[in-house]
Write a structure and sequence with these properties.
- The chain is an alpha+beta fold.
- It has a single domain, classed as Zincin-like.
- Helix content is about 45%, strand content about 15%.
- It has 5 helices and 3 strands.
- The protein has a 3-stranded mixed sheet.
- Helix 1 crosses helix 4.
- The longest helix is centred in the C-terminal third of the chain and has 19 residues.
- It is globular and about 45 Å long.
């Protein structure tokens, strides 16, 4: 799958997130990269920032949080187009959840692991 088609799947995944939840995302940008950082584990997505639950009155003038979605690992782990669609949707939701301060442990407990 080329980058343009993958980008479209990410757009579709974002469209599946409830609008009232997306409206609460603050100071964040979603980026699509081919690969995760070379010096770390193989990841499908990564949240880098200060979750909304950790922001206080001193939070100002900071760069946007970054939500990364990585194309090549998602494609490598999926055998079908439908699997890629579902994995991208799960990854987008998972990383947005981190923006709201929801931990991996909680996501796993809810079955989003």
């Amino acid at each position: 799958m080329d980058a343009r088609d993958f980008d479209a799947l990410v757009d579709q995944a974002i469209a599946r997130v409830p609008a009232n939840l997306l409206a609460k995302v603050e100071n964040a940008v979603l980026l699509i990269e081919d690969d995760p950082p070379a010096d770390g584990p193989v990841l499908l997505g990564l949240y880098v920032g200060i979750p909304l639950t950790a922001r206080d009155s001193h939070y100002s003038g900071v760069l946007p949080d970054r939500i990364y979605i990585f194309r090549k690992p998602a494609l490598a782990m999926c055998d079908t187009y439908e699997q890629v669609v579902e994995e991208v949707a799960i990854t987008v939701a998972h990383e947005i959840a981190h923006h709201f301060g929801i931990s991996d442990a909680q996501l796993h407990a809810w079955g989003w692991g």
